Amino acid sequence: MLVRDFIHAALYHPRNGYFSKTTTSGPVGVLEATIKFNQLQGRKAYLQHLNKIYKQSHISWFTPVELFKPWYAHGIAEAILRTANFSVPLKIYEIGGGSGTCAKGIMDYVMLNAPPRVYNNMTYISVEISPSLAEIQKETVGQVQSHKSRFRVECRDAADQNGWGDVQQEPCWVIMLEVLDNLPHDLIHSKNQALHWEEVWVEKQLDRDAPVELYRPLQDRLIKLCIEILAEDINGSVNRLTSVARSILSKVFPKPQQCWLPTGCLKLMEALHSSLPKMSLIASDFSYLPDVRIPGVRAPLVSAKVHGHSVDYESYLDAKGDADIFFPTDFWLLERIDHYCSGGMQPCQKNPAKGRKKRRTITLDTSAFMEEFGLPSKTRTKDGYNPLLDDFKNTKFYLSVPTYNIK
């Protein structure tokens, strides 16, 4: 199978996938109570409180929307309300809604801060691939009785275009929080810098415990399209001088190269733009990851919890449903994929701004987004330390809305 199919099975297999495990030992945590940041002295007190929570819960990971509830979700809701078209009913899709904390937070905010007709006519749809998480989302949102009639979960793969049904021409919002990092990626390989790229496949062999990699000529549509969208920047080349230097080095010191391609993101964006052509998008994710051991441009972290401690794997092939596989998001490439899937640029076009833009896009640091749309005072400790603004330097928000001034 292709690497993306191996990763998809390791994360999302109905029985053995990482996100399909029961939540008592699974990866997605739910905080019982909101953290009262203004009662904590500073960073040391916050980290001690966080450590205590993790030990009590036996959970691998609390998402930012969970740690900073309800304020994180309220910031997203405010961004939506400032730019939503209220001449049509508000419709929000959330991809991979986790425990439902974001959905509840947004619906709470709309109920309390928007005109009554906006809340009364709104629809919030969670597209969730995990049946166990789907049930938890229903419970979380259902804590507010009036939310129940406005919220539903569709248990399916959002990247499968068939699941979306007919094209929906009405404006809507799509939210993806920490989704891009867990989307399957493909891997391409070159024996040295001067040779062509090859697809990487994974094969289970009878005489080996672990699967092995095979290299084949480029044939897969998503892989080839992703390479075209990357154009000349497939190796992360900064400029022509860097490219020339690498060409010289490749002849003197030839070495294997690996490059990870966000083909899962490309497939999802194709499905979204085909089915929801007037969607507005808010996505948040990691822009880089520290201490990555796996080789290659945009390589993932593969990490598991063993006896309460994080253990990082040396290879993605070691992940068999017990480890998270998460990638850094290349926001420059995400923007190119977004423009391409909306029909706003050609695959090899170097600058989408020179084309006929169908999207207005911006990438913001999490701190900038929350200072603009959120309530930073709510996550500030006594001495002024603010973990939401100070600790998430490696996360960004991507906002993309359709332009309506084109023929």
Description:
One of its GO terms (molecular function) is protein-arginine omega-N symmetric methyltransferase activity. It comes from Beta vulgaris subsp. vulgaris. The chain has 407 residues and is α/β, with parallel strands linked by helices. It has one domain (3-346, 354-401): Rossmann fold, CATH 3.40.50. It is built from 13 helices and 14 strands. Helix 4 (71-83) crosses helix 5, helix 4 (71-83) packs across helix 12 (366-373) and helix 10 (263-275) packs parallel to helix 11. The longest helix has 15 residues, at 43-57.
CATH architecture: 3-Layer(aba) Sandwich
Beta-strand percentage range: 15-25%
Q: Which percent bin holds the helix content?
A: 25-40%
Q: SSE order in H/E notation?
A: HHHHEHHEHEEEEEHHEHEEEEHEHHE
The geometry reads as globular
Number of helices: 13
How can the largest sheet be summarized? 7 strands, mixed
Q: What's the CATH class, please?
A: Alpha Beta
Main-sheet strand order equals 3-2-1-4-9-14-13
Could you outline the blueprint of secondary structure elements for this entry?
Elements: H1 3-12, H2 43-57, H3 64-67, H4 71-83, E1 91-95, H5 101-113, H6 116-121, E2 123-128, H7 131-141, E3 151-155, E4 172-177, E5 186-190, E6 198-203, E7 212-217, H8 221-230, H9 240-252, E8 257-261, H10 263-275, E9 279-286, E10 301-306, E11 309-312, E12 324-326, H11 331-341, E13 359-365, H12 366-373, H13 387-390, E14 395-402
Parallel strand pairs: 1-2, 1-4, 2-3, 4-9
Antiparallel strand pairs: 5-6, 5-8, 6-7, 9-14, 10-11, 10-12, 13-14
